[in-house]
Amino acid sequence: MIPILSAIAVWLLGWWLNSRLASGPYSDTRMVRFLAPLIFGLTVIGIWELVVRGLEVPLVILPAPSVIWDRFWDSLPTLWADFVQTIIKGALSGYIIGCGSAFLMAIAVDRWDFLRLGLLPVGNFVAALPIVGTAPILVMWFGFDWHSKAAVVVVMVFFPMLVNTVAGLREATTMQRDLMETYAATYWQSFLKLRLPAAMPFIFNGLKISTTLALIGAIVAEFFGSPTLGMGFRISTSVGQLSLDMVWAEIVVAALAGTAFYGVVAMIEKAVTFWHPSQRG
Q1: What is the mean pLDDT of each run of 10 residues along the chain (281 residues)?
Q2: What does each C-alpha distance from 222 to 85, 136, 149, 212, 216 come to in angstroms?
Q3: Which of 121, 124, 209, 263 has the greatest number of CB atoms lying within 10 Å of its CB?
């Protein structure tokens, strides 16, 4: 009973602190914007720990955060090997290849209308295919190592990136294009000085969407065949062994990696598109 009452007290304390910060005179400062989600997250973790301990929830149902932390700390070499295999080799390489080729294809689509009319509908069809259907095929084509996971990531990120880039390249208005023509600008001069800068917010939208898709694709593809390492492999085998603390440790790594990946892309976007209204204030 005491842990449950303690959990309620922690929740009330977190509520009070966040409400004070949100209504205080420094609510718009960077420090408060950092502290508010930190307090909220710590409150959730504290309640989770107390409720699991108080109700004696079995490990296979929901391990306590302290148990997950112990497993995380004890399994650092294994988690690092899985991180390199899944994130660095599978997700990141597929992300670079998929987004890079989609950007180049978007330029071709922008130049030739028959590609826009023919390829984009096909792209929408391919993007709608379920990953659980295409992943086993790509694993059979490219083998069980990270190459097949990178191929799955390429398929997942290519068309979202393509559609966003094509939409961005068409963002410049007719008046702006006519102005460039009056300057006798060539296609590439107009592209580099008008249309590409105007497309940057759309391109970064595609890049940010693709960060999440890349991680999901790389992890899910490992469920259909992989060497004896990788985050998806570890999750599937740990579930079979009822080692749920290891599953949660892998989830923590995936969440941290995904947040860091998205944050890096968002920081680059802020530096590149500082002139855009969405980046002001």
Answers
A1: 81 84 77 85 89 85 90 91 91 94 90 78 78 84 87 91 89 84 85 88 92 91 83 89 89 92 92 76 56
A2: 10, 9, 7, 16, 10
A3: 209
Which one-letter amino acid corresponds to residue 40?
F
Rounded Cα–Cα distance for residues 207 and 42 (Å)? 30
230 in Cβ contact with 89 (< 8 Å): no
- Check residue 224 and report its DSSP letter: G
Q: Could you give the maximum distance between any two Cα atoms of the chain, in Å?
A: 79
Query: Which residues make Cβ contacts (< 8 Å) with residue 83, sequence separation at least 6?
Result: 231, 253, 257
Structure tokens at 3: 């842990």
How far is C-alpha 22 from the chain's CA centre? 28
From the list 82, 87, 104, the residue with the least C-alpha distance to 196 is 104
Long-range Cβ contact pairs of 57-60 (< 8 A, separation 24 or more): 59/242, 59/244, 59/245, 60/242, 60/244
Half-sphere exposure of 83 (CA within 13 A, CB side): 18
Tell me the H-state helices in 143-195.
Answer: 146-169, 174-182, 187-190
What is the token pair recorded at 43?
A: 């409150």
CA–CA separation, 157 vs 127, rounded Å?
9
